Amino acid sequence: MFNQRVFLSLFFCLISSSxxxxxxxxxxxxxxxxxxxxxxxxxxxLGLLETKEKFEVWMAEHKKSYxxxxxxxxxxxxxxxxxxxxxxxxxxxxxSSYKLGHNQFSDLTNKEYRELNNLGKKTxxxxxxxxxxxxxxxxxxxxxxxxxxLSEQRKLQEKSKKKIPTNxxxxxxxxxxxxxxxxxxxxxxSFSATGAIEGAIYVKHGKLVSLSEQMLVDCDxxxxxxxxxxxxxxxxxxxxxxxxxxxKNYPYIAExxxxxxxxCHRVKKSKVKSYVDLTEGDQHxxxxxxxxxxxxxxxxxxxxxxxxxxxxIFDDTNCGMDGDIDHGVLAVGYGHDKESGTDYWxxxxxxxxxxxxxxxxxxxxxxxxxxxxxxxxxxxxxPVLK
Length: 386
Description:
- This protein is of the alpha+beta class.
- It has helices at 52-61, 71-92, 110-116, 124-130, 147-161, 188-205, 213-219, 231-240, 283-292, 304-307; strands spanning 11-13, 33-35, 98-100, 168-169, 272-277, 295-299, 309-314, 327-337, 342-348, 360-364, 380-385.
């Protein structure tokens, strides 16, 4: 029997599109209308009966509880989840290279999901600043154009002219730490940066150590902690501080706190001496760079399809078509899927292992967009260790 708490004096009614295998899956419309128990629209709530058990299983799996708010909140979240359930079923009934599925974001509207992960799009001027295209004062030397960095750029250019491996997977080669979870803190930039430095240490010294994102969130004042930041700034911070502390000695708490960098020791050989910014739109350059080590990249991640991505090679033509970026991740490989015949990028995210393919996403390499799928070719950089 359906729990009687649903039959409150107030109800939320949602207008959403049902799954249909022979037409486009429409974006859910989160339209809540308050009505009394005699309103005709109350009947639409009976559709929630069919997914109640499935919703409760999902709640248990992701440790969700809304009782501290009110039963109305659980009903509201069930309605959002149900709309996404219909969207997932609709998409998965189509012929597509990727599948959607439920995860920790299933009870959030797309707007709430974007706000939770601080997915704010960068303007063209901000992107130019990130790429160091704006004029730099004469008394300022950016690491991205230092002598060491230019030397690395030349090495990369020479490597890109040569034949690079058809496939590369730094995860299987042992250069990537386990998937982490930034939680309700817009600190993706710090996870991307530590991942790149962790990978660089492994490639150069054969040692894999998990570095502290919290140190960057608390102490890197060029960036804005849980409100966003830039990977290049994190590389500069590492250089100035002679390396980063370990995750173990400076654990992540998913909020900005007082800087404690003086209370922990820097991981040996974690000091960055420079970094290289790749040319935007250069797919071959990114492949050549990944062949050398894991690479920090920015991308667009605000799409509902990205929010609910489960498996397969992601190929949403709406993602990245305007070159927008709002999220920092780590490019850890590339390859070719024999079953579909599709080339892909392998990307490590920082939303825990319950999202995507155990925390990873494969994204199609060849697209009509000048900056690639989800603008993955817009902002790309990697650190060079001392």
